[in-house]
Amino acid sequence: MKRITILIADDEAEIADLIELHLSKEGYHILKAANGNEAIQAIHTHAIDLVILDIMMPEMDGYEVTRQIRGQHQMPIIFLSAKTSDMDKITGLVMGADDYMTKPFNPMELVARVNAQLRRSMQLNQSRSGTTTPVIEMGGLVIDSDQRSISLYGEAIELTPKEFDILYLLASYPKKVFSAENIFQHVWGENYLESGNTVMVHIAMVRKKLGEDKNKNKWIKTIWGVGYTFNG
């Protein structure tokens, strides 16, 4: 069985060592990077299954590292940062992170979140390797779950992994209403008290990328007080 490799990118050696200690006990193979450039180099030269990423690093910050990763890879990314404002969290998630934890942190909670992200990633990979992979086509919108690609009237639309998963979930069950909590449970694979705001931010980004505004939510319709539905 392939050993799971986790990359820890943090310029604070004590924090990286602490995370390595706890994750090594779980049987994971750990790589460490002290700055953004080292993180990108590690991803180019190793098969990385999950990245734990600080934002404020020398040479290249975590946002830029995430942008470069998402250009080629789909592995889970967990931000672990001293930046604690809601806007910092929203920015991290919008950039393509799968989770966001603030420092100081509980190492056991981080381990639990790592396990949850890896479990969900493996389930997605298994589903992608199946013999049937539906392509959803509605009104000029094409969603290919095999290629994990979106096009609208022939033009490619770039979505983050979570944005894709949300749109694909809703489009797979047109007219069915999903609450924010339902969406979070399906897409993130766990319960989370702040799921409502997280889902709302991701849906807002999907709408923006699909060229929708507050007055014309063509593809994703808000059912006030209930949740969201695909309106294709």
Automatic annotation (TrEMBL):
- What region holds the Response regulatory domain? 5-118
Query: Could you tell me the keywords of this UniProt record?
Result: DNA-binding, Phosphoprotein, Transcription, Transcription regulation, Two-component regulatory system
- Taking every annotated instance into account, which residue ranges of this chain make up the domain OmpR/PhoB-type? 133-232
Q: Which GO terms describe its molecular function?
A: DNA binding
Residue intervals annotated as DNA-binding region are: 133-232
Sites of the modification 4-aspartylphosphate? Answer: 54
The UniProt record lists the keyword Transcription: yes
Please report the name of this protein according to its UniProt entry. Answer: DNA-binding response OmpR family regulator
| Species, as recorded | Paenibacillus shirakamiensis
